[in-house]
Amino acid sequence: MSEPVTSSVRIDWEPARDANRENWDDRVALHAEAYGLQAFEDPAHLSDVVREDAAALAPFLPEGFDGLEICHLQCHIGTDTLSFARLGARMTGVDFSAPALETAAALASRLGLDADWVETDVLDAAAAVDAEFDLVYTSIGAICWLHDLDRWAAQVAALLRPGGTFYIRDGHPLLYALDESREELVLRYPYFDTGEAQAWDDDSTYAGDGVVAHPRTYEWPHPLSSVVNALIGAGLRIRRLDEGRTLPWQFSPRMLSTDDGFVWPEAERDLVPCTFTIVATKD
User: Fold this and answer.
1) Low-confidence winner among 118-122, 162-166, 202-206 (lowest mean pLDDT)
2) pLDDT tens digits for range 55-73
3) How far apart are CA 134 and CA 235, in angstroms?
4) Does domain 5-282 have CATH number 3.40.50.150?
5) Which range is least confidently modeled, 102-111, 207-216, 264-273?
6) CA–CA gap between residue 25 and residue 97 (Å, rounded)
7) 2 confidence band (pLDDT: 50, 70, 90)
């Protein structure tokens, strides 16, 4: 497994998206093995991500998830999507990777859960799905792959029915600006949007020990203000913004595993946020 190499580049969206899709197609088999899908054979099992996010959403959805129509953007192999289905929601999962959606559909069939799956670029999601939802959900590790947050937020707003709720928990942009390989907290990558993508050549993935055939990916920095202002600009009302100290994956080898996720060493735990969470509504 090679060491990741990164550089800043200017690239159009379509070739960058296509390179990312090839990389995520390669990840499917690795993640299907590494995600521990056998745990879902237990009818009570939910993903750790959804357990945390459902609790964060509870104050805004006092009647629970039963019967809610939810659209999960960038759903990958569907473990979080199907966890919400287990809570009683009617789910639509959206992703640009055909192999990921095939794996998600196979898992749903095996578990006896119903969900719809839509293959599309998330920046075209509203036209591809052509429906309105009570909740649009984006799980962690998603928007760094997108170059245009205004277009993304417009999709979110179009997919929500009036009174609907949007939720996102994602890696904090300050976290993404850190050098993950250093023995101390050191900034290395841009925090602000520079108009350039970070091009990565990395044949590893965050789950599993295998390698991908297409190691080149492109990610974009988005400061927290850009995320918030994109949602406001799309007509949504911000109801809550939180920042968290734990992460569902090991961003840096120095992060420690706990029952709640990965954290920085104790002396650094209050110095840098790991995640942000936003709840917004459509009037």
Assistant:
1) 202-206
2) 999 999 999 999 999 999 9
3) 16
4) yes
5) 207-216
6) 6
7) very low
Write out pLDDT tens, residues 150-181.
999 999 999 999 999 999 999 999 999 999 99
Nearest residue to 227 via CA among 133, 116, 159, 143: 143
Percent of the chain at pLDDT exceeding 70 = 98
User: Residue 130 corresponds to which tokens in the numbers above?
Assistant: 């052509």
Whether the per-residue pLDDT at 5 is higher than 90: the answer is no
Residue 250: which of 180, 185, 190 has the closest Cα?
Answer: 180
Domain ranges of the chain: 5-282
| Cα–Cα separations (whole angstroms), residue 48 to 52, 152, 261 | 6, 26, 9
Inform me whether the pLDDT recorded for 239 exceeds 70: yes
CB 122 within 8 A of CB 94: yes
Residue 125: closest CA among 81, 101, 156: 156
Q: What is each CA distance from 115 to 94, 105, 156, in whole angstroms?
A: 11, 8, 19
How many Å apart are CA 88 and CA 158, to the nearest integer? 23
DSSP class per residue in the chain? -PPPEEEEE---HHHHHHHHHHHHHHHHHHHHHHTTGGGGGSTT---HHHHHHHHHHGGG-TT-STT-EEEEES-TTSHHHHHHHHTT-EEEEEES-HHHHHHHHHHHHHHT--EEEEES-GGGHHHHH---EEEEEE-SS-GGG-S-HHHHHHHHHHHEEEEEEEEEEEE-HHHHTB-TTSSS--B-S-SS--S-EEEEE----SSSS---S--EEEE----HHHHHHHHHHTTEEEEEEEEES-BSS-SSTT-EEETTEEE--GGGTTTS--EEEEEEEE-
